[in-house]
Design goal:
Layout (H helix, E strand, L loop, with lengths): L7 H18 L8 H9 L6 H14 L4
Helix pairs in contact: 1-3
């Protein structure tokens, strides 16, 4: 599987899917803010999907509020 930097069109779809799954696992109800979406889309993502998943998992665990 190619790194995320070569899959710009997939990043938002992957992020939404991962967030939905992680929220279900951690019994949270979170959504991406405009600022978070912009940050996700502007990041160069040198790693793979696992990097995105790890970042989102940390956000789900650490975020207070929605």
């Amino acid at each position: 599987m190619p790194p995320l930097r070569g899959r710009d069109g997939d990043i938002q779809l992957l992020a939404n899917s991962l967030l939905e799954r992680l929220c279900a696992e951690h019994k949270r109800n979170l959504n991406f803010s405009k600022r978070a979406t912009d940050a996700i889309l502007s990041h160069t993502w040198p790693g793979n999907v696992r990097e995105l998943e790890n970042r989102l998992m940390r956000a789900v665990i650490m975020t207070e509020g929605s």
